[in-house]
# Entry
Amino acid sequence: KDDPQKLFVWTYLSINCANTIVISVCYLIILARANRTARKVHGMMANGKKGQVDHKADRLQKSVSRIIVTDLLCWIPFVFICVLHSTEVMDATGLYGFFSIILLPINSIVNPIIYDDYLETQITYMIKYLRGSLTRSLSRITSRLHSQESKNSVIAAPNGLEMTE
# Structure
């Protein structure tokens, strides 16, 4: 109850939360300034180039959003568990290893991947390829079912009897 490290823990958690908020706000400021610049450039460009500016602005917005989300998904659970541990709601001693060895380094690994256009391009290509393969497979299955149904369809003969093809 009178843990001498409590002040340190709460100071650390407060600084950690403040840093996460500052980083998120900075990314939002970057995004707002980039969008403002894109709109200015958009107004000065010929129609053919406007699509490129819009595409780059959209990519930047997606990247910044992903960075903010991954930062929050990695740090908020850690801070929450630390608060629960510090307030003695739960004993989270065993979870610190998971957070420090697995979860928090994932954030460091994910951010460069998010910044890299090559990986995003490859993932987009793979999704399009898989979607096309699935569409072609479903189309073949559907056409086979239709041809099977037409072979088994019943037709009426001129004499009133039913015949199958």
Observations:
- The chain has a mean pLDDT of 77.
